[in-house]
């Protein structure tokens, strides 16, 4: 045999077996890639399920049992307002929140007065500056101020809490 010919094993004088081709990827790499793809697909499905399972129309009470007591949540429509800036640049705030009434019976009353509550939030949110939204304490202050304004609009003893779902500044 010369050195320029491909190497092959000779088993019999008449039979020549070509060398075995190595697979492009090892079995271990293929198993890891398949596992990663499976995790991504399952994770995406679970995320999609969790995002869509509790989707209620804005203003519609959503009842949830927690320790045997019925808790009602009222989703408010998302609000987008201009922020007051010193530099004159256009800045916006998008906020989505949920109202928690004291009882289920108060939930219907709050649902009926939801436009009044949203109207009470407008002047406060429009007066915010971008620097007012910095840090986690800012979210707490905004939440407390919204609770004070909603209580003033509804009357005392009707609203337990306001839960901020999204607070996005652009």
Uncertain runs with pLDDT below 50, 5 residues or more?
Answer: none
Number of structurally distinct domains: 2
The separation of the N and C termini measures 75 Å
Radius of gyration in whole Å, from Cα? 31 Å
Structural class: alpha+beta
Helix content: 40-55%
The total of beta strands comes to 7
Which CATH top level class of the largest domain fits? Alpha Beta
Main β-sheet description: 5 strands, antiparallel
Question: What would you call the shape?
Answer: elongated
Mean pLDDT score, rounded? 80
Continuous helix count = 4
Oligomer: single chain
Sequence of secondary-structure elements: EEHEEEEHHHE
What percentage of the residues does DSSP assign to strands (E)? Answer: 15-25%
Fill in the CATH topology of the largest domain: Tetrahydropterin Synthase, Chain A
CATH architecture of the largest domain: 2-Layer Sandwich
């Amino acid at each position: 045999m010369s050195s320029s010919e491909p190497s092959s094993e000779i088993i019999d004088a008449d039979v020549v077996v070509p060398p075995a081709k190595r697979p492009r990827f090892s079995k271990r790499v293929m198993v890891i890639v398949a596992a990663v793809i499976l995790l991504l697909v399952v994770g995406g499905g679970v995320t999609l399920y969790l995002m869509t399972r509790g989707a209620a129309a804005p203003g519609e009470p959503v009842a949830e049992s927690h320790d045997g007591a019925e808790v009602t949540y009222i989703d408010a429509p998302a609000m987008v307002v201009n922020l007051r800036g010193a530099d004159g640049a256009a800045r916006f705030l998008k906020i989505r929140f949920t109202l928690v009434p004291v009882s289920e019976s108060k939930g219907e009353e709050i649902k009926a007065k939801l436009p009044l509550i949203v109207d009470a939030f407008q002047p406060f949110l429009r007066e915010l500056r971008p620097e007012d939204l910095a840090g986690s304490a800012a979210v707490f202050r905004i939440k407390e101020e919204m609770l004070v304004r909603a209580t003033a609009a509804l009357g005392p003893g009707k609203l337990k809490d306001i839960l901020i779902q999204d607070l996005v500044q652009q």
